[in-house]
Amino acid sequence: MPTDSPSTAQHYDVVVVGAGFAGLYALHKFRDQLGLRVRVIEQAGDVGGTWYYNRYPGARCDIESFNYSYSFSEELQQEWVWTERFAGQPEILRYLNHVADRFDLRRDIAFSTVVESAEFTGDGWSINTTNGTFTAQHFVAAAGNLSVAKDPGLVGLDDYEGEVYTSSAWPHEGVDFTGKRVAVIGTGASGTQLIPELAAQALELTVFQRTPNYATPIGNGPMDHELQQQLKPNYAKLRERSRANFGGFPYEQSQPSALAVSPAERRQTFEARWSQGGFRLFLDSYQDLLVDPVANETAAEFIRDKIRERVTDPAIAELLTPTGYPYGTKRPPLETNYYETFNRPNVQLVDLRREPLERFTAKGIETSDGVREFDAVVLATGFDAMTGPVLRLGIRGRDGKALTEHWSEGPRTYLGLMVNGFPNLYLVTGPQSPSVLYNGPLAVEDHVDWIADSISHLRADGLTTIEPSAEAETDWIEQTLAIAEQTLLPQTDSWYMGANIEGKPRVCMVYLGGVPQYRQICAEIVADNYRGFHLS
Ligand code: N01
């Protein structure tokens, strides 16, 4: 196995960017199963990816822990014991550290190393980093979908003299907000998780909300020991069922339409799923919630009623109640005591739609209603999702063409895996694959397995490059957009649409045909001798 430092031997069969869920599995798969020379480049000081960085109080995965885990190793599945139904960030990071140790992965990861640019050289890739240049025949971007914080464009932030924290770059030593006046900007999934935690600690907490969200209960609690014992012998079946499910979860197929049942029955279903908790459980109540606006409105109204029940001040409840866009078209947060937090005497809500944020001052935040002073500000303002992490790598393909140019009107991929003009560049859970709507660990395993098969296929045939044709790429984008148009997602400004970033092309970046259909298409293309790809 290669143990060379970057300064001596720098040529590899595969260079992978990122040591999160995707990069760790890629290293294990390529090195230990294919026998390839692999180097992983990771900007952080250790493994974990998103779970390394997002250490804010309350950070937790909203997919059940036994589902949000690798399926590739039966031994790993059997030995790892989850302590919570929905694992918190520290436990997931411990799990990934365990994986790194168990499969001896760290020795092939260059930590604290940032990719500055990557160029296709004709027969492979040259990857320039802050710690020298690496060359490789294959280049795998496993840099995550939500790993580049968005610049929130807050005027005067540099003038602010208090403490500033970003949810996705939280200090490792934690922050003590006791006795402080704290502001939070952003009420997406991150804000929804950290707001109740901060409210319990801070002297005063002021939440600056621009768009209210449809948050539903996560329903966390200790992992049921008996349930875990029952699940373990059945993991193989569980994974099989997950991969046969639209979003990669082992759930029963829900009923087709919210409109095919009586209002009483519908309410009963929503109630049952509301109390069970979990992201998929509620959104999955009926198959047409993301397709039919009338069906969607039944779920939206159910959630609005719950908010009104939980928030004591009707005026605050109204501000927290989402209207004007369908449920699920912005990624819905999962919460614990989120709405009750606004009943606390030390919590204030500022509605930025009525009272726009004008600028930061030395002491605080000025809105159209005046200045409020704060000791600390927390930004939970989101990410340059999906394309940001790939474009940041400064990739140039055939004839020096920049990926930024190729994607100037939105991402262009074939299967969300490869890009015309960029041979041997692979994207793990890239745009136009199910990606962020596919249970993460299983999604990355599928893509890494596909890439491994493709590299093995090339090697078996004495070939060196694979690249999708321009036609296959265009055709895939058209299919992806046509499916998106059948859903409600394009109606809403969300990060799924690139609409959270000013100037970013507004286009649906997720394949919405569901996991089983996507997996079938990928398999058929391979079986049809890599239809749409040029191998040489
Ligand atoms: O980011 P977001 P996030 N002025 O983009 C507001 C995953 N995740 O980090 O909606 C004022 O969703 C913005 O307002 P608006 C998950 O996939 C998962 O919370 O644009 N406000 C919004 O309220 C999730 O979807 C987990 O009007 C500004 C918020 O900031 C994704 O990561 C936990 C603003 C950003 O919300 C991203 O979530 C956490 C400005 N200039 C995250 N700019 C779990 O597994 C932005 N906002 C549970």
UniProtKB/TrEMBL annotation:
Keywords: FAD, Flavoprotein, Monooxygenase, NADP, Oxidoreductase. This is NAD(P)/FAD-dependent oxidoreductase. Belongs to the FAD-binding monooxygenase family. Coiled coil: none annotated. Transmembrane segments: none annotated. Its cofactor is FAD.
